[in-house]
From TrEMBL:
Biased segments, Basic and acidic residues type: 1-18
Annotated spans, Disordered: 1-20
Domain of life the protein comes from: Archaea
Name of the protein this chain belongs to: Class I SAM-dependent methyltransferase
GO MF term set: methyltransferase activity
InterPro entries assigned to the protein according to its UniProt record, in alphabetical order: Methyltransf_25 (IPR041698), SAM-dependent_MTases_sf (IPR029063)
Pfam families for this protein: Methyltransf_25
GO BP terms in the entry: methylation
Enzyme class: transferase
Domain Methyltransferase intervals: 47-134
Species in which this protein is naturally found: Halalkalicoccus tibetensis
Length: 204
């Protein structure tokens, strides 16, 4: 991690009011759309959204799920998510403090999602986070994020090298597999952005 959790939280607190308007890239929208599509919860499913931010994914899934739990380190981002839930009359969502490696949620989870957030962790921390996610025993984990499909063009980074730490797709697939997820889908949105779908291997 190139910044501490506290530094990332403060950075996103400062950015919370204009975050939604700033996410106007085609790749971000396509990635979020694929995460929502592949999460595909049913009416009895509890969804956990890690690094939920202002709720782009959590709020979009709430209609189809039984309940959505959002976790993030930035109170400012989650406050915006709560406002949007209230504005939309969405009552089956809950947002609270939690980190990838300590989600602060031990209840039942059917599907875990995360969009554009895990790239703040180092590769070793991502591996640990994916193990923690597997320990919650969801049947599916859908990760949309900055990830490298090949050698990234250094003149056109889709991320901020001073604060972000994206992994290669190979590293992520290995981490999914080691944690007990079979990777059933890998969608490339951009040479530096993609979505991985992991299905839990074996009985829950
Ligand atoms: C780029 S935003 C993405 C928000 C949202 N998922 C979306 O798709 O718009 C990244 C979010 O990850 C959160 N974040 C960063 N590091 C985190 C960590 N270690 N644990 C949980 N959330 C984290 C930030 O606070 C921020 O809200």
């Amino acid at each position: 991690m190139k910044r501490t959790v506290e530094e990332h939280a403060s950075r996103f607190d400062d950015h919370a009011a204009d975050y939604d308007e700033s996410q106007d890239s085609e790749a971000y929208r396509a990635c979020a759309g694929l995460v929502i599509e592949h999460a595909d919860p049913g009416p009895e499913d509890v969804v956990l959204d890690l690094g939920c931010g202002t709720g782009a994914i959590a709020l979009a899934l709430a209609d189809d799920a039984k309940r959505v739990v959002g976790r993030d380190i930035s109170e400012g981002m989650m406050e915006r998510a709560r406002e949007k839930a209230a504005e939309g009359g969405i009552e089956n969502v809950e947002f609270g403090e939690g980190r990838f490696r300590e989600p602060g949620y031990t209840g039942e989870v059917d599907i875990v999602v995360s969009n554009f957030a895990m790239h703040h962790l180092s590769d070793e921390e991502k591996r640990e986070a994916i193990q923690v996610i597997a320990g919650l025993e969801p049947r599916r984990f859908v990760l949309g994020d900055v990830m490298f499909f090949g050698e990234p063009d250094p003149s056109e980074p889709f991320y901020s090298p001073e604060v972000d730490d994206p992994a290669t797709v190979g590293t992520l697939v290995e981490a999914f597999t080691e944690a007990g997820f079979a990777v059933t889908g890998a969608r490339r949105v951009h040479d530096q952005v993609g979505v991985l779908v992991g299905e839990r291997v074996g009985e829950r």
